[in-house]
Design goal:
By secondary structure, the chain is of the alpha/beta class. Helices cover 21% and strands 21% of the residues.
Length: 364
């Protein structure tokens, strides 16, 4: 689970600036360049190196799932007030982005405990000109987003952002669907849930029928496979919720949200307490991730962990700014230390599988 902490203010100013400074740079493709650095003798371990270039992406789809139940007015205002921090990372870049908003508290309108017609779940809110998502061509995008994100507080008690996002990206995104054209297979996908309740998709509300939404395990499996297991870095899931234990601070209250936290854990997502008194730094970092900078680099071979040596543009970063994930065999960076656009990340290590006699082929 990634928790996007409030990093130092100076850092948050530097990172967006890096994106803007590269705005005239032609988009490039991530490459991996393995090489054999050396093999001192027949019995020595092979020194292997993987080299990556921090990618720039062509397209990004961002979907905000906003709880519109009766207790969410202050939280909607908090999102609106800090959206400029999020979108600042896109200004001056060549990124082709779609930003949409979907209501998370599904209801028939007449009965708050009735989730209503599944055929209408997950439909995008409309901008003032009728557009169903915002893009680089949108005039006054901050004002338009604020109008869309303030979805009101007349939603029902079937708060289930997981189902809403599934419907938005699957059912309604199909040919002829209400959201057709918003989701793109080749774009980076960012999902942001804002709710002061747990997801009720797999449970009954206090009175009335079951909400009949997707359960968190089924949702996690679907989301993991949406772009393929090897492309998990093309998906970002963020929960701005009460966390495992709920919260009460800064005039806000939220119930525990174990179903959302289960998804965060399953897909290595992001979490911010909805009771936090300052969302600006978090949304700045989240916008940086949504703009497509890669935070995970998968190695070509299995390393002897103690031999890992990492450099970024030829300089060694502090050890605390990156980790090695044994399960995914990847070098991971927290979002506040993600390598800058077009940076060269080089990882040298000894091969765990190598006996020192046979050099592994480069084309595997």
């Amino acid at each position: 689970m990634r928790h996007l902490s409030c990093a130092a203010a100076a850092l948050c100013l530097i990172l967006p600036a890096l994106l803007v400074s590269c705005s005239e740079t032609q988009l490039v493709t991530v490459y991996e360049q393995p090489s054999i650095v050396g093999q001192p003798d027949a019995l020595g371990a092979t020194q292997w190196a993987d080299e990556f270039q921090q990618r720039t992406i062509a397209a990004s789809d961002i979907l905000f799932l906003v709880d519109d139940s009766c207790s969410m007015s202050e939280e909607q205002e908090e999102l609106s007030e800090n959206f400029d921090a999020f979108i600042a990372n896109f200004v001056g870049t060549n990124l082709d982005y779609h930003i949409g908003v979907v209501r998370a508290a599904l209801s028939s309108g007449s009965n708050p405990f009735d989730p209503g017609n599944p055929d209408e779940w997950g439909r995008l809110e409309s901008a003032s000109d009728g557009a169903r998502w915002l893009s680089a061509d949108t005039n006054d995008i901050v004002t338009e987003f604020n109008d869309m994100a303030n979805v009101g507080t007349n939603g029902g008690d079937c708060e289930m952002a997981l189902q809403a996002s599934f419907s938005a990206l699957f059912t309604e995104a199909s040919p002829g669907g209400y959201n057709e054209g918003f989701y793109r297979d080749d774009a980076h996908l960012t999902l942001v849930v804002i709710s002061d309740e747990n997801d009720h998709g797999d449970e009954s509300v206090p009175i009335g029928p079951s909400c009949n939404g997707i359960d968190p395990q089924e949702y996690s499996d679907w989301l993991t496979g949406l772009k393929g297991y090897n492309n998990l870095d093309k998906i970002s899931f963020t929960a701005i919720v009460g966390g495992d234990n709920g919260c009460s601070a800064n005039g806000n209250d939220a119930d525990p949200a174990p179903n959302y936290m289960q998804v965060v854990d399953a897909v290595d997502g992001n979490f911010l307490s909805i009771c936090d008194d300052d969302w600006s730094t978090f949304l700045t970092e989240l916008g940086l991730e949504a703009s497509g900078l890669k935070r995970s680099f998968q190695l070509r071979r299995i390393p002897v962990e103690g031999t890992l040596v990492l450099t970024i543009d030829g300089a060694a970063p502090e050890a605390a700014t990156w980790t090695y994930d044994r399960q995914r065999n990847s070098i991971d960076f927290p979002i506040e230390h993600v390598p800058a656009e077009l940076a060269i990340v080089r990882v040298e290590y000894e091969l765990q599988e190598d006996t020192g006699v046979v050099v592994p082929p480069l084309d595997e």
